[in-house]
What we know:
The structure holds two protein chains of two kinds.
Chain A: H1 2-21, H2 23-50, H3 59-80, H4 82-90, H5 97-100, H6 106-113, H7 120-133, H8 145-169, H9 171-174, H10 178-188, H11 200-209, H12 217-225, H13 229-257
Helix pairs in contact in A: 2-7, 3-7, 3-8, 3-12, 4-8, 4-10, 8-10, 8-13, 12-13
Chain B: E1 2-15, H1 19-28, E2 31-45, E3 50-54, H2 61-68, E4 76-81, H3 90-94, E5 97-101, H4 113-124, H5 128-142, H6 157-169, E6 175-179, H7 187-204, E7 207-211, H8 215-221, E8 224-229, E9 232-238, H9 239-247, E10 249-256, H10 267-270, E11 278-283, E12 286-292, H11 298-308, E13 311-318, H12 321-329
Parallel strand pairs in B: 3-7, 3-8, 5-6, 6-7
Antiparallel strand pairs in B: 1-2, 1-4, 8-9, 10-12, 10-13, 11-12
Amino acid sequence: MKRVLKLHSIFIAQYLKRLMEYKVDFLIGATGILLSQFFQIVFIGIIFSQIPALQGWSYYEILFIYGFSLIPKGIDHLFFDNLWMVGYQIVRKGDFDKYLTRPINSLFYVIVEKFCVDALGELVMGIALLCVSIPHLSMPFYWYTIPLVLVALVFSTMIYTALKTVTAAISFWTKASGHITHMLYMTNDFSKYPVTIYNNFVRTFITYIIPFAFTAYYPACFFLTGENPLFNIGGTVIAGVVLLAIALFVWNKGVSAYESAGS
Amino acid sequence: MIYVKDLKKEFKKTIKEPGLKGSIKALFKPDKEIIKAVDGISFSVEKGEMLGFIGPNGAGKSTVIKMLTGILTPTSGICRINGQIPQENRKKYVKEIGVVFGQRTQLWWDLALRETYAVLKEIYEVPDDMYKKRMTFLNEVLELDSFITSPVRTLSLGQRMRADIAASLLHSPKVLFLDEPTIGLDVVVKDNIRNAIKKINEEDGTTVILTTHDLSDIELLCERIVMIDKGKKVFDGEISELKHNFGQMRTLRFELQKAADIDLLDYQKKFSATQDDIEIESDGALISVRFNSDAVSVEDMLSYTLSQVHVKDINVTDADIEDIIRRIYRREVSV
Ligand SMILES: Nc1ncnc2c1ncn2[C@@H]1O[C@H](COP(=O)(O)OP(=O)(O)OP(=O)(O)O)[C@@H](O)[C@H]1O
Ligand SMILES: [Mg+2]
């Protein structure tokens, strides 16, 4: 574990050094993400100027859920972004070879290699939205609220990373699966809003099939109302752990099916 | 040390007919073709040996290397290196081997070389004093000094290859796999790399398996070669053996003063030899006759030729290794 952290920090340090070389690149990336988030917020604002409450949710409650959803997504984006590349080209081009010739876990190696600071756009926006909305909300506060926030963030991030690992691993059989990861991320947009506004199908889908709702709505719901911690937080933990187990299994199966490319 | 038995690797390939219709058909009822890239290969390598792996393009050399290094899972068969099966405990296994693919780097594109080695030191858990000693040694044999501070992306092919080889040796592996380590390099860099490989083999007793299309690599480095073709082994033995088996083949070359004189020469009839023993090729007045010196002596060939025709220039040469291998590849002879 110590070694893992050491390696990770070496790569991050290298990455930051390189970032200084490509400052413009970083600024454009992060600004792009900030802007797109900003327009979404404006959009929510416009809706609320027409209807004061959405299925019983106030404007600030919605902002809180939205802001919360950006944080695990941002953490996953920051640390685990290279999984996208696995599905888009690393496997197809046979470049995955190099992840198998070093004495570290191939999944860990893929992940540690890249560090995506664009994600700071999402994180900054997420935190800003929480800061804006919390003063307007009367949220219950217990001694265990803060630890539970951390638990919720860790396991929500795990849900993202595990799902992305599974879709990336599909490329070991199909050669490319970037488009599947992409589709997955489209369903993710649903989870930024309260699930109660959706019909049964969508609700079931993002709760039990691809449980993105556990990365935002359910945990946020607990922090807003203090209700049902077992389902709201426990569900996040269970979804994270189960998906991670599935992800590791699929990844390892995929690595043995990996065919490289002719050379 | 290395034991390979009946190793096979098949790739399934979907055959798609051209056009949209073909795409749709491939989606619902794909035609699968099985490519037998490696089709039952067995061999073994002793500790400290350097084995040359040769064969024409697409023979399956890289595929064998990828199975031996744990990248690909064999369809069937066994490979065991140092008592370990590559795919079984990959992380433990790769600690004991070094791998270089001449075609693509395994280094990090944006990292400076010095930093690359520092990262590898952590990955392989090389102790500090060991690392210092190793770097000094590698620096000396591969001459890394002049570009050690440059990012990998800025290195020339020759520099990058040396960098990759050094990276594969940092942790003093017991076995080194080199897939075309001299591809695309100039003579000087080739020499440098060959010397480095030789030195590492001599000083550390590293077992080396290398594939190449440059037969001088093999002649300078390896005692033994394994030749494969279409996934099957066609020769396994010492180079001297290969030379000996085919060494009696000689080539007689001469230029006729009058090109039409060629009709006066009928070697096969004169020596009542078969096509296998004497073979004649002509290019205008330039004639070359390949013959088996066990069947017909050099002296007889020369005196018969000179008695029949007038020549400008004449010589007899031994078959060289390149010539032998060319003929095996073309399936003119079987081993
Ligand atoms: N990932 C792959 N998918 C499908 N077929 C493959 C794959 N890799 C190799 N092959 C096929 O397997 C055969 C052997 O390929 P391989 O790369 O091992 O040849 P090689 O001996 O290394 O050739 P070269 O000298 O050109 O490098 C070829 O017919 C190739 O088309
Ligand atoms: Mg090859």
